[in-house]
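Lab notebook page, bench 4
Experiment: in silico fold of construct C2
Operator: M.H.
Input chain length: 438 residues
Purpose: comparison with the prior construct
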Amino acid sequence: MADNTPTAGKASRLAGVKGMNDILPPDSARWEWFEDKVRNLMSRYAFRNIRTPIVEPTALFVRGTGQTTDIVEKEMYSFADRLNGEELTLRPENTPGVVRAAIEHNLTYDGGKRLYYMGPMFRHERPQRGRYRQFYQLGVEALGFAGPEMDAEVMLLVHTLFQELGLRNVRVELNSLGVPAERQAHRAALIEYFEKHAELLDEDARRRLHANPLRILDTKNPAMQDLVRAAPQLLDYLGDDSRRHLETVQGLLTACGVAWTVNPRLVRGLDYYSHTVFEFITDELGAQGTLCGGGRYDGLFELLGGKPTAAVGWGMGIERVLELLQSQQTQDLTPAPDAYAVIPDAASLAVVVPVLQALRAAGVAVQMHAGTGEGMGSFKSQFKKADASGAAFALVFGGDELARGEVTVKSLRDGSGAQRLECLDAIASWAPTLQSRA
């Protein structure tokens, strides 16, 4: 086998995998801000963090996500383990992984669990706006709660998060998939209906007609939209209990001021849903307008070998949410330090660096000026960098100040240019005055 490794000259430049993106400053500040908002909100709703492996057995998604879903049929990154041949997959979603962990560790033995996660997922598809091969998902899973009030609560959690992020123009659509017997009756009606119009079905629809006809309702093929709109609706097959479940969810949302509409074509793309399904949608991101989607999946535990367990949850595409946030807001979320240390020469570092460490220990965010190998640079150039950093104060460690055991604290943001001397032996007394961050 030929070795194409360069042996001389400049090494070839490597690039990242298409559809798997670097998140760089200052954009990463928006991600951190979002993650902080999420963690704070989850705590208020009593949801606790769970972290599952990125790699799971392929069978987990074949059984849990559904054999006939696009994810399993077309999009999974699957491979055989080199050591033992085990079939493994980079997780394309995380609900099956959370349920697998709950079964394996018997998480619900002492009652229901409210869980959330944030992390990367992987789907092998053509990268486009809002759809990436490595994408990040926020999700919640409420395990062991059978009542419609939990369906409403997880939806209210999304609504509250979007409110606190400041997002606008997001609508809520919901539907009910009922219970298995109701879906079976609807399934039979769908098959009969689509068989009468077989000449109008595309290749995917014909393939799914008998395997999973509900998925045909989720088609994006423009040529099939009229056909799908006229198809039998599952809502017409719901029994009294399923109707009460949906009406309770609707009533709780209304009581909390959340507007909603019923979309009878909303079926979601995964096989494990029952009762409530929902999506939070925007029209400002083109074709990739679904920001968050989820629903109840009471049958998944048994499907994966566990005991019957009620469950409801959702998944949210973080990139899409941040893209919408960025388009609607111009707020600069890049964190600025409280202070920037202006340092005259390398000889003073032995005194300055311990002072900066003491300030950081006191809760002050300090950016230290660092040299480039040719000295520390002039005071003028350092002050330019101090101003560009966004710091509220400059700490000037001049030779005269250091000789007296002092530092000059100069204001950079209020227009006054005011400055004062502070004693290096009394950091605890003046450090709080530098903390300008909210």
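Observations: The chain has a mean pLDDT of 90. The domain at 339-434 is CATH 3.40.50.800 (Rossmann fold).
Next step: discuss at group meeting.
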